[in-house]
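Section 3.1: Structural characterization of target chains.
Under the original work plan, the team committed to producing a structural model for every single-chain target entering the pipeline before any wet-lab resources were allocated. The record below documents one such target. The sequence was received from the expression subgroup and is listed exactly as submitted; it comprises 273 residues.
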Amino acid sequence: MKKISLAFVFDYLFSTLIAFLISFVWLRFLHLRAGLSFVLSIIISILITLIFNFNNQLKKNNKIEQLNTNNDIEQYLYTLMSNTKKENLDYFYNTIKKIKSNPRVIEDSAIEYFDNTIKKQVILLPLFDKKMPRFEDLLKEVKKFSNKKNIKITILCNQIDLRDKIFFENLKDYKISILTKEQVYLQFIKSSEIYPSIIFEPNKKRHIQFKELLFISFNKENTKKYFFSGLIIFLCSFFVRFNIYYVFMSSLLFLFALICKKKQYQACKKNDL
């Protein structure tokens, strides 16, 4: 059973109170009796809070699911980029064999198969590398199949320059499509349910340390910000009757500005953290 934190309870009650006050003000504005307004406001506030919480939870679940999918994509693509050309050929040969029919390796760099959806022979080129594929390399690979007619060439890569993508997909004598990241994952990895072995795990979220917080808060670059903020609040203290808050806050900001000027924080570097 999922634990309900105290912060969640206070947040729920505070949200309900706000919704109640808004409802009660407008119901009283409509000249309804106080008792009826009170009861209706409770019902409306509970309904509004439940709707908002349900919507927020739905968004949160979708966000988590999307985040997990993105992590999976990055991990699988990192594996493909680290593989040799032969390993990627073998991998995509197996995926196509499961979701398509009768694939075969040609030119030691591509896989040919018949796609029943478009009724055409398809040449699949897995060009995964840690660097973006160059225009010259793409052109060289495409020209290998210039003698084949009525085919479609599908290029798989981790990323590509948009200008190169537009150029190749609009060539007159070729039917070319270039798939990257999410498209490769959805059309080949997920649909075949044959997943590349994950060779690295993303770093877990790290909580900020107190020393890092000091460096961020009292960095030398913040001196002017603290000083001018304190100066503005200090000047405001001359125009209000009860000025103890303004005097206290301006003094605190001036103190922060002074701390930012101290040598120990000037000398603090990111690589020391």
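The beta strands are 104-106, 110-115, 120-126, 151-157, 175-180.
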